[in-house]
Input
Amino acid sequence: MGRPTGRYRVRVDDTQVNRRIPFSVMFNFRDVGGQPARDGRTVRRGRLYRSDSPHRLDGADREAFAALGVRTVIDLRRPSEVERDGRVPEFDGLAYRNIHPEHADWGDNPYRPGADLARYLADRYADLAETGAAGLGEAVGLIADQTAAPVLVHCVAGKDRTGIVCGLTLAVLGVPDTDIAADYALSTEAAERFQTWFNSTGKQVRPGLPPLTTPAEAMILFLTELRHRHGSVEGYLRHAGLTDADFAALREHLLE
Output
């Protein structure tokens, strides 16, 4: 039995939860595969992963990561964030790409406690989709390249920038919005572990940032309003530089 999340009654079921892959120093790592598409096919497992930043990988975690056979890491963080925290360690045969979708600093539009969090996040995602279209298109285009797979896409906490890229990818694959939102919502539980680790570092949270919670409504709103502006998710991604051949390649190697 799944559990509802938010007013859209999106359900997080056992299949979604079981896509999580445990690490000691990454808190939001999971396989994006296993999602059902509208045409009856399923998103193939072991081809696309999402996570928070893997720069802390070491010891047994490093061995577990190597065993997944990840071939390409797409790092969505700002170059300054990469410089501050570091990047994924080097592995034989691993390609690293820092693709930052340009966007305003969220501190410029701070979250006010008590405000509608889903609405705030959907608005920030919409802003990022407009200013960072080239970066988002480049990231989804790389995911469409089967020679790059398996791919790991990540940012800092693995919820916002990563959630947008994975949400766009799953939408092109024909996964219903409610299932995309349920995957996105899994980051809430992971965020609790991330917050515990962050607190242990003694670092301070920047003022004005929203809670790490990922309400399913935020992803539903983002995708719905993106379609209103661009006609479809594919229409938006064409604007971002993708082609019908990219969409076909994405479906060919990520659906079974």
